Amino acid sequence: MNYTSERIRNVALIGHSGEGKTSLAEAMLFNAGKIDRLGKIDDGTTVMDYDQEEIQRRLSINLSLASAPWQDNKINIIDVPGFFDFEGELKSAYCAMDAVVVVTGANGHVTVGAEKVIDKAMKYKTPGIIFVSQINKENADYQGTVDALVEKYPQKIAVVEIPIIDSNGKMTGAIQVLKKNAVDFDGNEIPIPEHLKPAFEKAYTQLAEIAAESTDEMMEKYFSGEPLTRDEIIEGIKERATHDGILLLMAGSSTANRGVINLMNKIVDMVPNPKECIQRKDVDGNEIVCDSEAPLVAQVFKNIADPFVGNLSYVRVIRGTLKQGTTVVNSRTGKTEKISNIYIMKGKNQEPVTELVAGDIGALAKLQDTETSDTLCDEANVVTLPRFTFPKANYFMAIRPVKRGEEEKVAQGLQKIMEEDKTLVLTKNTETKETLIGGLGDTQLNIVLQKLKNKYKVEAELFDPKIAYRETIKKTVEARGKHKKQSGGHGQYGDCVIRFEPYPDGDFAFDEEVVGGAVPKQYIPAVEKGLRECIEKGILTGSPVVNLKAVLTDGSYHDVDSSEMAFKIAASLAFKEGMQNAGAVLLEPVMSVKIVVPEDYVGDILGDLNKRRGRVLGLETDDSKQIINAEAPHSEMFKYATDLRSMTQGRGEFTMEFARYEEVPPMSADKIIAEARKNMEEEK
């Protein structure tokens, strides 16, 4: 069946990990007749969690797609991982969806995952539905969950359904607040239970208040004491849901498929279609209207690089119609792409179609030079949409192949994985000679290792990166280096006196104050060259030496035995003596850190920073969050991404960048130097 833009609904299932998003997608597909039995997470049989790692971990890792035909409409379902390491998938989903379905358990409180998603929905006025799942679970607290949500987001939560729970704790039906009736799960109308009538009356009054704010006319009518009609309340709620980010609230059980049909009905009735949503804009600020007859504009929101299936590009059609067999242009590269195959996804399965209309979502096979965020458009009407901004990697580990000689295979596998996950970065530390991989947490990086092994048949391992320490001196000294060797025939003779002094204006400077030709001019460059080679490895940990000035002041030479090599060696001897006598110290990289947390966690964060030898520079307030500006040694911040998540239950965020080098405190320096010298001995 072909669907027009008006009959498409694009919803992303989002929420805390383990709250039932994938099970909800499974129930929706079952109700729509797309599958003939309900799969289970524990059995590894769900449509949306099909990756080997997802099945083994019982955890969604990748964004996945499916569509469910419902009441002559098509609901495009985007199942989004809830674990914080995979926030990049959430970003991709936001660029493809029109509305959210926030899935949260009936826990009696607002979970962190739900809170973060709802906060974002409120900020960007994203319409959607909160589905309180796991109603049938033992000790489920639906009313406590509702009360917590309404208290936290007053006048932003529209309770449109109240579950009816029997004496055994099972959901048997629901009160449909807008329709002022109750139904069981066979679709039969039943009386509203007496004990739920107060909750129903309260919910209906709240809906009328929310709807009244949709227009000035309705507000005037409501506050004049004239009741709003049911149709007016429905239209007002839909208007505010579409444009003000009001979230409807319903309940059910994903695994038991209770309340899911009601949810699907509400998605069709109350969630805006692509034409009703706020329209996209190109990079120049021009509005791109959702019109299937206009020139094509589509955007790739995720790439799948699979060695067996091949490359798939998930795409959202913003304007026009994407047709099989046509040629489009990638506005980033200027190159054309032939649209050979178009698919509607059902998890890992591909259902071929001939076209996608404006507002629809699908997948394209074997695009040659197209990345996530790229815009595909009509050759005669080139348009560029803004590129996505993914969360910045803040958790780095060193990575190497388990077997020597497989560096290239690991690098190729990582490049393919990074095409799928734009939060991953790969860098080479030229100083430590280590390859670093960065992401959002340890689980994400461990999954990268498993993907390398399972998909690309190469094993790698992670280990703590080396710190890029520096060495310098604290006082001015003079040192002599004398190299004299006689071995028959020409000997070797070089003698130089060098003044070493702190140099705050740069890493290294060389000068000479030789008088009377004590060191001939032709040997002075050799002294400088010898020193430049020496500063690459200091005497404490073998780290580069910085902020050092060397001045050649005196020396002596031999007419026959002196040479450039002899003066290079003499310079190195002077360097070692000078560094020892000048109070050589170890420097460590200090990072500038910006931490954003709710106010309740500020005390814990400040105490933890103190343990990390950190310094707090100031506090700011922004949107009820506290921003802590601080500095801390890099060595203390490697695992901060996971530590901060643990301290704040996932509510904290941070960014970090290099600030400068500072001297390591003596006690810490002694340990670092001892460890470095032990490692150097082992390497020898």
Secondary structure layout:
Blueprint: E1 8-14, H1 21-31, H2 52-57, E2 64-70, E3 73-79, H3 87-94, E4 99-105, H4 112-124, E5 128-133, H5 142-152, E6 157-159, E7 161-165, E8 171-176, E9 181-184, E10 189-190, H6 197-212, H7 216-223, H8 230-244, E11 247-251, H9 260-270, E12 280-281, E13 287-288, E14 297-306, E15 310-319, E16 322-323, E17 327-330, E18 336-338, E19 342-346, E20 349-353, E21 355-356, E22 361-365, E23 375-377, E24 395-401, H10 407-420, E25 425-429, E26 434-439, H11 442-456, E27 460-463, E28 470-472, E29 477-485, E30 492-502, E31 508-512, H12 524-534, E32 548-556, H13 564-581, E33 585-598, H14 602-611, E34 615-622, E35 625-633, H15 640-648, E36 653-663, H16 666-683
Parallel strand pairs: 1-3, 1-4, 4-5, 5-11, 6-11, 31-32
Antiparallel strand pairs: 2-3, 7-8, 8-9, 9-10, 12-13, 14-15, 14-23, 15-22, 16-21, 17-18, 17-23, 19-20, 19-22, 24-26, 24-27, 25-26, 28-33, 29-30, 30-32, 33-35, 33-36, 34-35
